[in-house]
Amino acid sequence: MTAHRHASHPAIARRLKRAEGHLRSVIEMIETGRPCLDIAQQLHAVEKAVSNAKRTLIHDHLDHCLDRTVGAVAADTQRSVDEFKEIAKYL
């Protein structure tokens, strides 16, 4: 497989590295007996960070790769492609 990079990839990598650091902190919180509410809040933050990174990656891929693959199409087909990209935001 060839290298596949988008302009958003460095920002996504930074976001995931921050989430990785937060996850390590959560593990430490568990090991040191921090309150469950604190742990749950931090786990939620990690989960949101990873979810947002995934969403950004998928949307960027759709915006760039789908358009490149489909190429120039008739207006009604383009509306379908645009609708697909729009509905994917709800994933």
TrEMBL record:
Membrane-crossing segments per the record: none
Xref: Gene3D superfamilies: Metal-sensitive repressor, helix protomer
Protein family membership: Belongs to the FrmR/RcnR family.
PANTHER family: TRANSCRIPTIONAL REPRESSOR FRMR-RELATED
Protein name as annotated: Metal-sensing transcriptional repressor
